[in-house]
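Dear support,

Our group has been running a series of protein-ligand predictions, and this particular one with zinc ion is the one our PI (initials K.S.) wants archived with full inputs and outputs. We had some confusion internally about which version of the output was final, so please treat the block below as the authoritative record. The input we submitted was:
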Amino acid sequence: MTRNIIVLDTTLRDGEQVPGAKMNGAQKIEFAEQLKRLRVDIVEVGFPASSKGDFNAVQDVVRSIGDSVSVTALARAIKSDIDAVYESIQAAHDPFIHIVLGTSDVHVERKFKRSKDQILQMGVDAVAYAAKLLPQVQYSTEDASRSEFEYLWKTIEAVVKAGATIINVPDTVGFAEPEEFGHLIYKIKDRLNNLNSNVILSVHCHNDLGLATANTLSAIKNGADKIECTINGLGERAGNASLEEVVMALKVRESLFACNTNINTTELIRTSRLLTYLTGIEVQANKAITGENAFAHSSGIHQDGLLKDKQVYEIMSPEEVGVENMELILTARSGRHAVKHAVEKMGYVAKNADDFEQLFHRFLSLADLKKEVYDHDLFYLITELRERTNKISPLYELESYQVVTNELYPTATVKLQRNGVEMKGSAVGDGPVDALYSVIKSLTKLDTELKSYKINSLSRGKEAVGRVNIQLIYQGKTYSGRAMDTDIIKASALAFLNATNAALLEMVRK
Ligand code: KIV
Ligand code: ZN
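Confirmed final output from the archive:
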């Protein structure tokens, strides 16, 4: 009989902890909506006790998806954290509290500097408190894979008796090896069955040795009921088990694992691309499932084999994960019907006729510039349009700019606008982007420091869209800014302004 594996996505919590992956409220909602389309069973929406902003973001995401997807958020084993989770997620239809507390010697002795009994009691008290608030409580035995087994089990037994309904076994530092981790899960499952067979056994693997997917699959083979993953494997350090890899392994090797998930695999690529767009964190080209080359066959022998029969070199079809095989190339002569068909294939549904017209006109301008418009470009137009609709009105807007570059004096002139007031200035710099950033900085009068600047080509073709991701430091905090345009100087200016506006908005909120 095939078992159904519960999939929890923690991109918005473990993934978002990654430096530079921070999303704003509107972006989190957009990503959560996509996770809903992907049909994940549970979304871990954040760590609400970490700041007021995170608390509000968790609440907003819950308002947006909590009526149809189960949600959770993380708490340390302390009352104020548990209260923050409860208050931020209680409105959802199926919420549960997730508590984490270490079980390994190094966590108990070095991190907490307490005795094992004290830590165990702390966990029990936290679960008992949470169980009074919500019927479902997940307990994570942090660093489980490096914990002494009998203490780990004693903790699990005690927290289950206190009311935990899900036990999550994390390989927090990516130390486990598949056979050994599978054995650990087997032993826990066996004892749990005797203790309380209704308790759900979950795993959460990190990828420090590149084994997160293998460890997760091994845990499934050995009885895990639920898995925690992230899109593109985003997460602390080397990341978490990648959702797309685990899900596709279960699908492609269904006869081996005898397990399935509720994931709509045709949404995998779109979810991956949306995450890249929102965070600016690129997927490695040869990454399984979501990498640019995952379905590209380059050698002559392979191409020849594929033409004879796809199965010669393909274990899954690109369509299964949402890569459109027959990509339609649009041009300025493509009509509304073709554009509508192409964007609907990407999951975009216009709210009304005006909404679509806006998109169509932006498509025509891009097609004039680029001649050939690919799916990547449409994706850019859609996300840009969504961002415009979602955005809290930007504080500074770019009116016009001119950059003249030469070896001696690269110079930039920029005109900005803020609440109807125009401002203009010029500056020289070490290069065109440096000159551009100097003038914007002097106009916005914000003492920011550029921490990183990255530029990538988003689409194919000679007239590709350039995407710029930057990070600015202002008063010790890092702010990200992203922008895309066929003109990379314009994208650079917009990215800088977006990061500046993010810093300003935070100041205003405070
Ligand atoms: O890696 C870890 O141990 C975690 C827990 C909060 C589950 O992220
Ligand atoms: Zn983790």
